[in-house]
Amino acid sequence: MRTLSIDIETYSSVSLTESGVYAYSEAPDFTILLLAYGFDDEEVQVIDLAQGEDVPCVLLEALISDDVIKTAYNANFERTCLARYLGKSMPPNQWRCTAVHALMLGLPGNLKGVCEALGLGEEETKSKTGRALIQYFSIPCKPNAKNGQRTRNLPAHDLEKWQLFKDYCKQDVVAERAIKERLSIFPVPQSEQELWELDQKINDGGILIDTQLVDNIIGYDQIYQEKLMEEAKALTGLTNPNSVAQLKNWLRDQGINPTGLTKAKVEELLETTTEDVNRVLQLRKAMSKTSTKKFEAMKRALCQDNRVRGTLQFYGANRSGRWAGRLLQVHNLPQNKVPDIELARELVKEGDFETLEMLFGETPFIFSQLVRTAIVAQHNFIISDFSAIEARVVAWLANEQWVLETFQGDGKLYEHTASRMFNVPIEKIVKGQPEYELRQKGKLATLACGYGGSVGALTSMGALKMGLVEEELSDIVHAWRQANPNIVRLWYDTEKAVKDALDTGWQVAIAKGVSAELEQGTLFIALPSGRRLAYAEVALEDNEITYMGIDQQSKKWTKLRTYGAKLVENITQAIARDCLAEAMKRLDQAGYSIVIHVHDEVVIDTDKDAMADITEMMSRDIDWVPGLPLRGDTYQTKFYKKD
Questions:
Q1: CA triple 390-396-401, angle to 5 deg
Q2: What's the confidence (pLDDT) of residue 144?
Q3: What does the alpha-carbon distance between residue 171 and residue 107 come to, in Å, rounded to a whole number?
Q4: 494 near 532, Cβ under 8 Å?
Q5: Which GO MF term does the entry hold, naming one (predicted)?
Q6: Residue 112's domain spans which residues?
Q7: 603 pairs with which residues across the strands?
Q8: How many domains does the chain have?
Q9: Distance between CA atoms of 519 and 523, rounded to whole angstroms?
């Protein structure tokens, strides 16, 4: 089968970064400027579409042929743009994504970063002028540009730059080919290719947005913010009460010397200040609340049919292979804490904000609660998630039998954990009994300590705010570890197995079909599903495991360190991800339309009475994790929410 490598350069007045490729390619002025391509190992050609060159018939036929595999770096972009430009379907099963291949091997997500990580020569990396050329030809001119006020730059405006742009486009195909060749010794498993195809199908379908709800919230928030500003000006006499410097000076005049005006600092000051100052701080808090940011993001990414597409990034979490959120960041939406969320939605849609404030309080809070509910079903949503999936997986891996028995029984893990931690009969840890307060400690310890977390993890999860005192935190950690000895042992066994693999070069078993192996300088951790986690350029330095990866803070490709408990976290989350993937494939094959999935939850839009069927599919045993007790918690709703 022939392979066709592709890269394109495009123009659209819609922002690609803010709106995503689907809305970007729907813009009336969207066009493909350049199309670089190469069959197999043949020389790369560049078609200058912007200057009237036509796509050759042989290329047109190849683009829609089942017998030609199309490859690109971040293939979703090329696939979506070409489908729009040519008016032809671009089925994902005909495409391969080199970016996904790189991510699966623990490499950076961008083309330049992968080339640098692989040590490819300068001739195979992106041109240093690439960003400037994209800015010049692919993005509208700024209104104040000194170019005769034209709205965009065309090839004729700078033929020298245009030739550089053509060379740049060609070089991207050369780079993508070089990466593909280098990575070919570790091919993408067919099961992952099929999962990427399902991911593309889900992203292509998108999520339906309640535009009336979104428009009403954005419109009213502007009026509301203006009202808050006028009140703040009247109380302070400041020209801009939103200015940190001006507000600090005003507070000093009131006898208060704030060290900062962050959300946490404002909360502290609210507890001690007088009435007028208190109201000003409340206004500051309300004006700084970004309750409409998500709604504005929905508006920017909206396609013509009121759907937002491209919200999921396949293999976005490098260490586990989980998906990451894009555009709306659906993995990070506020929880629903309002009891009558349906009434709040209806009041917003009717524009009755006076009643809304009377019943629910200030609008910034309630608006943040309504973010999820802006995602609506065409028919009905059936939402199902794996209950406590990580706790189940890590207990299964470690053979922590009492935890597995809990999930096979009443499922009350936090109560049973507290019972073991504090040696209290389970019958006493019920509502109405004083011992019930131990449940919160059991819950906190379960969430904070499962991957080696200690006092710091408890604190960061809010232990002190829950009323616990610092002196008892180390005792809680110790009690949890004593209650879960097999999980603790798994941390150390995993670290030892990885170090043995690095020392000997042999494959070393860890647990339940999980093993570690060193190949070509990369540590691979095989999972029960057959997938492998990858740690690039792994080494043992002073008995510490190091590898090259993207630092979460700096976003740079750098040396990172890991250890047993962290590796257990990666493995656990990876297995949980593979369980969700297995369930998603089942649901898709059964004809259910998955519109989105978040963490361990899947959202289906259907006109069928299918709750029982979907629950069964989510709870069905998976043959490569025998004995793992899975349970799908399922509910139905017209709009997205937490049950």
A1: 120
A2: 64
A3: 20
A4: no
A5: DNA-directed DNA polymerase activity
A6: 2-188
A7: 383, 596
A8: 3
A9: 6
